[in-house]
Amino acid sequence: METHPRLGIVAACEPEAAIVRRQLSSPHTIGSPFGPLWQGCWCGQEVVLLRCGMGAAAIPAVTWFMQHCQVWGVINVGFAGGLQPHLGTGNAVLVTQVHTTHTDSTMAGLGHPTAIEPDSALTHLAAVAAEHAALRRHAGILLSTPELVLQAADKQRLGQHSGALAVDLESYGIGCIVAARHLPFVVLRTIFDTSGDDLPASVATFTTPTGILQTRHILGYCARHPQTLMHLLYLGYKARVAGKRLEAWLQHFLTLLSRQPCDDFSANPT
């Protein structure tokens, strides 16, 4: 592992990690107990990418990552589910705070602060980058839950109760780990499923614990439930939209970041 600090990028699943990986110049793969890491350059930034897996699987992977990789800060990138009706697929979530509904042992040892506040300077840069990318954007709270929220009615109730813009599984835990090391942290997530979208109950089994899509499993599900094929194709389209918008956002963000020294950024207290 090289000793000079790089920018850490953490993505839960392969479709999100692939957005970063295919843009890396001079890529180099490094082994870890949680799968490969990828090093390379993007827009003048030297980065190291971790695919951490969904939900609780992210905690040990990111803990190892922070212990063994020299990073000066961490970007958590990926998709989120909309909780408010005005958020559409591909919209950028400008995360001002990350809250959680976790009350179980998966958060043990992380300090469990009320909220994680991303680095203010990086958050401002993310907002400027989203504007440059011509994305529709919304600033507010991101909520991390222990399980996927699949049904539209549940997402709407959660949005009303929490006031959060969007939901994911990992951002709170990742933010806790990074904050404990007093390093800058920021979240860049685009909306995949909206507050009006139902997701199939089996979607949680479509990926491995390390975030790799199980194509044979998905095809088998379609064979057993052919009536869901059109719905899954529709969700695939939404994933492509969210991915393209996220890629454009990251491109502008890293371009802006390359113009500023990393010493300009410091972790906010939580």
Structure write-up:
There is one protein chain. With 270 residues, the protein is an alpha/beta fold. The protein has one domain (6-264): 3-Layer(aba) Sandwich (Rossmann fold). The protein has 7 helices and 9 strands. It has helices spanning 14-21, 58-68, 120-132, 152-162, 171-180, 215-224, 229-257; strands at 6-11, 25-30, 37-42, 45-51, 71-82, 92-100, 137-144, 166-168, 185-191. Helix 2 runs parallel beside helix 5 (171-180).
SSE run: EHEEEHEEHEHEHEHH
Q: Percentage of helical residues?
A: 25-40%
Global outline: globular
Structurally, the number of domains stands at: 1
What distance lies between the first and last C-alpha atoms, to the nearest angstrom? 30 Å
The top-level CATH class is: Alpha Beta
> Any guess at the CATH architecture?
3-Layer(aba) Sandwich
Number of helix segments?
A: 7
* Rg value: 17 Å
Reading side by side through the largest sheet, how are the strands ordered?
Answer: 5-8-7-6-9
Strand content: 15-25%
Sketch the major β-sheet. 5 strands, mixed, barrel
| CATH level 3 topology | Rossmann fold
